[in-house]
Amino acid sequence: MFTRFRRKRLNPVLRDLVRETIITPDDFIYPLFIRSGEGIKNEVASMPGVFQMSIDEAVKECEKLKSLGLRSVILFGIPDVKDSVGSDAMCEHGIIATALRALKEAHPDMFVITDLCFCEYTDHGHCGVLNPKLQTVDNDITLQNLAKQAIVHAKAGADMIAPSGMMDGMITAIREGLDSAGYEHIPIMSYSTKFASAYYGPFRDVAESSPSFGDRRSYQMDPANRREAVLESLADEEEGADILMVKPALAYMDIIREIRDSSNLPLAVYNVSGEYSMLKMAAKAGVIDYEKVMMETLLGFKRAGADIIITYHAKEAAELL
Q1: How does pLDDT run across 270-321, given as a tens digit for each residue?
Q2: Cα distance between residue 6 and residue 3, in whole Å
Q3: Which DSSP letter does residue 8 get?
Q4: Which of 40, 136, 236, 253 has CB atoms 3.0–4.6 Å from 190's, for a disulfide?
């Protein structure tokens, strides 16, 4: 006798009953890119449907998100002035701190996460203070600044901190900083396994964060390294991260599954700009059914082991669910 798998596929109701992986709007975090000014909503040419927004427009956007059942956003700031250390990121009157206060006042029920890094705020586009001799980020000086930045965000109303710079020891430094300032209740979602990926290209257009020299391979991970990828996330778990993350997602399904099997912490993935734009451009060329491919891609992340998906597709996906 052979196994008749198709018996469970013939009736659509039964197919739904035995479905193993489910996506809901509660799985999504939607990125917002904030800059100063009023009435600004500039679409990014390389990312159709994604905008740089002023704070007042971001407040309106959150109303739209809530109407779709989306309740979580992650903020990225685009400051007016950049310098060598990213001072705006550590300022209580900086773009993110100001946006946090406005968003939490208008939408206290929205869960607001902040991306904690310096690449958008430095004039050199790297993720921290530079060591001029080594021509890379000075790890330990940057740890001190990350703790300062986290405290500013927490004070302004952040519900969760998400450090993305891939500095060694960043979770320890941020956790100690938050706890010492009375914010021991604020969780940390670590970009714990973040690769030096070519998939980030369009993001640098929207966040205006391209490095002025070199690249980020001295601190972000080598895409070829599987075992190290798992170790990076497990180290952040030991340091006190509440949620782990794999970024990018699409070319790293094996890493998502390995970390899922190695840790019991919630696991996020970042469906990054290049992944998003590829689907948009393929749809424009008429070579895919955009909505079906989008949903299949998001389902793949969830099936691989993701609990949380940060994605620019969130609004479109929520409308379909």
Answers
A1: 999 999 999 999 999 999 999 999 999 999 999 999 999 999 999 999 999 9
A2: 9
A3: G
A4: 236
Residues 151/183, Cβ–Cβ less than 8 Å: yes
Cα 243 to Cα 54: distance, rounded to the nearest angstrom = 29
Q: What is the DSSP letter of 243?
A: B
H-state helical runs in 83-135: 95-106
Cβ pair 146, 171 in contact under 8 A: no
Residue 207 pLDDT exceeds 70: no
Q: What is the pLDDT, as a whole number, of residue 131?
A: 83
Beta bridge partners of 35: 78
Q: Which residues are catalytic?
A: 194, 247
Which among 84, 168, 167 has a CA at the least distance from the CA of 129? 84
Q: Are 161 and 116 in contact (CB under 8 A)?
A: yes
Residues 78, 34: Cα–Cα separation, whole Å: 6
Torsion of CA 11, 304, 297, 69, to 10 degrees: 80
Q: How far does Cα 113 stand from its chain's mean position?
A: 9
In the three-class reduction of DSSP (H, G, I as helix; E, B as strand; rest coil), residue 222 is classed as: coil
DSSP 242: S
Amino acid at 151: I
Average pLDDT, the chain: 93
Please provide residue 115's backbone torsions phi and psi, each rounded to the nearest 5 degrees.
Answer: -70, 125
Helix (H), strand (E) at residue 60: helix 55-67
Percent over 70 (pLDDT), the chain: 96
Q: Which residues pair with 122 in a beta bridge?
A: 83
Measured between alpha carbons, how far is residue 51 from residues 78, 207, 208 in Å? 12, 10, 12
Which of 82, 95, 312, 100 has the alpha carbon at shortest distance from 211?
A: 82
| 258-294 CB burial, b ≥16 within 10 A, e <16 | bbbeebebebbbbbbbbbbbbbbeebeeeebebeeeb
Antiparallel, parallel or unpaired: β 47-53 and 41-44: antiparallel
